[in-house]
Amino acid sequence: MTPPDHCAVSGAPARVGLVVNPTAGQGRGRAAGRRTAQLLREAGVEVLELSGESVADALARARGAAIDGLAALVVVGGDGMVHLGVNAVVGTPTPLAIVAAGSGNDFARVLGLPAHRVEAAVARIVVALGHPPRAVDAVHVAPYVAGAQSPDGETWGGSWFAGVLSVGLDAAVNARANTYRWPSGPAKYVRAVLGCLRGFTPYGYRLTTDAGTRDLVGTVVAVASSSHFGGGVRIAPDALVDDGQLDLVSASALSKRAILALFPGMYRGTHVRHRAVSTERTSVVIIEPTGVGAFPPVAFADGEVIGPVPLRVQVHPGALRVLV
Fold first, then answer.
1. Of 230, 210, 196, 174, nearest to 282 (Cα)?
2. Exposed (0-12), middle (13-18) or buried (19+): which is 190, by Cβ within 10 Å?
């Protein structure tokens, strides 16, 4: 399918799809969505409303429109809406555009996009509609069953993400933080860390990468295409969204005191210097439980639930196009 022309031409304005998370930013998303639609229309852009009645409905509607071809799919919200947008546009001729209005906005931050500034974000989108989109990596994750892959090694089914997949204490923190109504923003993740440390037991993993297989009784396992997650945590400070590689960050078993000492450094990215932390570049990661230590928690990616291990994670270089 030929990608649509992103420039408005005489008599044919650019046509974009719009998906809004009304609960993003503690309910500010709805107002941000209305303002986004208004500003786009004032700029001469045709807006197709695709938000739907539920996340599943919005994804289905957005995916269908993206396959048909839009100048862009505009998502309004946080990293969860970016996650929906990635799954809607990957493999289609339609690029993704982001109006960051959520609590974390990590992917927008990495791309240098405005956060909580609707006018600035829409102005960037309108300008970007007249230029080629930026190609960045997309990551496919699916349940792993040995021998159940397609001929090219890919696992059937699954979903896509653009940021970070977490399946350690970081995932448990994400799950707990999602249950909190206060505090807002990154502070809720700090509260969640303290809650998760009560009764914490290190997890047992088998990690298979391009370099081979190793077992780990550990605290953190994160597979990153982007450097940030969790509202500003620099989990993989050297990760780049367009290098065609995944950064696997893992930490061996740590005491609760050591975890608390390590945690502040994750916002600066200095945790990777700790002797218990290792990093590795790879194109594929298979994560399995070992039965030694606690069973790993349910995995999250872009702040959204993915599911339990075993999982297979593979990067697809340049598979996602974004208006920046």
1. 210
2. middle
Query: What topology does CATH give the domain 139-318?
Result: Tumour Suppressor Smad4 (2.60.200)
CA 92 from chain centre, in angstroms, equals: 18
Domain segments of the chain: what residues? 15-134, 139-318
CB distance 241 to 162 below 8 Å: yes
Q: What is the pTM of this model?
A: 0.91
The CA distance from 145 to 176, in Å, is: 28
- Whole-number Å distance between alpha carbons of 106 and 80: 10
Instruction: State which amino acid sits at residue 320.
Output: L
What is the DSSP code (8-state) at residue 92? S
Q: Tell me the C-alpha distance between 137 and 163, whole Å.
A: 9
Neighbour-count burial of 257, counting CB atoms closer than 10 A to its CB (0-12 exposed, 13-18 middle, 19+ buried): exposed
- Kindly report, residue by residue over 244-276, the tens digit of the pLDDT: 999 999 999 999 999 999 988 999 999 999 999
- CATH C-level class of 15-134: alpha beta
Q: Which tens digits make up the pLDDT trace of 6-58?
A: 444 444 689 999 999 876 655 678 899 999 999 999 999 999 999 988 999 99
Are 15-134 and 139-318 equal in CATH topology?
no
Contact 69, 14 (CB under 8 A): no
Give the H or E element holding residue 138: strand 134-143
Cα gap 121→101, rounded to integer Å: 10
3-state secondary structure of 323: coil
Question: Measured between alpha carbons, how far is residue 285 from residues 114, 208, 246, 308 in Å?
Answer: 32, 6, 8, 15
* Cis upstream peptide for 22 (omega within 30°): no
Task: Determine whether 301 is exposed, middle or buried from the number of CB atoms within 10 Å of its CB (0-12, 13-18, 19+).
Answer: buried
